[in-house]
Structure formats: structure tokens, C-alpha cells
Amino acid sequence: MARRVSSPAAAKAPTAAAVIADANAARLKLATLEQQLQDGIDTIDFGAFKKKRPLTDAEIDQRKKLRATQGEVREGFRVLAFVTAQRLDNAVETGQLLRQMQVINAGLEDDLGTLQKIEKYATIAAQVADALAKAVAQLAAIAAKVVI
Q1: Given 8, 94, 110, 141, which is the most exposed site by the fewest CB atoms within 10 A?
Q2: Residue 78 pLDDT more than 60?
Q3: What's the Cα-to-Cα distance from 74 to each of 36, 38, 79, 133, rounded to whole Å?
Q4: CB under 8 Å to 48, separation ≥6 — which residues?
């Protein structure tokens, strides 16, 4: 029975499910923060609207800060996507899938080599069959002349 030997890197590699769970948790935190920032912006806007006045300089300043922070949070979503993709690339299942695909690819290469040999033999067989058909036709023509 073959013994499985796992490398230290494989032992530390996360599973795809763990990577996705971590990403979803981080995404939820980012989404909550983004919503809180939007609520702050909405509160400023609604407060001025309720009082039927334009935003004060302090409110404009606070709103700009909230929008800037909101932009940073949105950038965090992009970074999270790249980090998640990188972690998935290093996941246990990805390595297993790669090895399986390599085995399948090697098998397909062997099959291709076999099919190419069969094609050569089939071409030769077709040439032989064609030559035999011509010879039979000539023999039939000769036999027809002899019988008459």
C-alpha cells in the first residue's frame, strides 16, 4: 500500500472552504463599515435637508472625510478579492486539481500518440485496400475477356 507523504507547505495550505469562509467574513465586515459610513453621509445630508439649509463648512468637511474613508473601504473590497484569489490558488484542493489535470493530460498525450499511430496504420491499410481493389478490377476485366 502506498504511503502518503505530505509536505509542510501542504499541511499549512488552507482548504477552499476555509478561504471562502474567511473572505465572506471579511467582506461582511467591509460591507458593514461601508454602510455605516453611508449612514453618516445620509445623516449629514438629511439633517441639512430637514432644516432646509445648505450644508455647513464643517458638514461638507465631515462628508468629504466620510466619502474618502468609503473609497478606502471600497478599495479594501478589491484587495480582498485579489487576496482571496491568491489564497484559493494555494488551497489544498487547487493543488489536488492541478495534479489530477496533469495525470489526465499525460493520459491524453498517450492517447494522442496511440491515435496518431492508428491513423498511420489506417492510411497504409486504405492504400493496400485501394491497390487490392484495383487489382481485383483488373483481374475481373481480364476474366471477362477470357470468358467471352
Answers
A1: 8
A2: yes
A3: 13, 12, 9, 76
A4: 54, 55, 56, 59
Q: Which amino acid belongs to residue 95?
A: G
* Distance separating alpha carbons of residues 27 and 29, to the nearest angstrom: 5
Cell of 104: 489526465
C-alpha cell belonging to residue 133: 481493389
d(CA 86, CA 83): 5
Residues written for the chain: 148
The whole-number pLDDT of residue 14 equals 84
The answer to whether the beta carbons of residues 62 and 44 sit under 8 Å apart is yes
C-alpha cell at 147: 470468358
Q: What rounded mean pLDDT belongs to the chain?
A: 88
Q: How far is CA 56 from CA 31, 48, 52, 63, 85, in A?
A: 28, 8, 12, 10, 44
Q: Measure the CA–CA gap between 3 and 6, rounded to whole angstroms.
A: 10
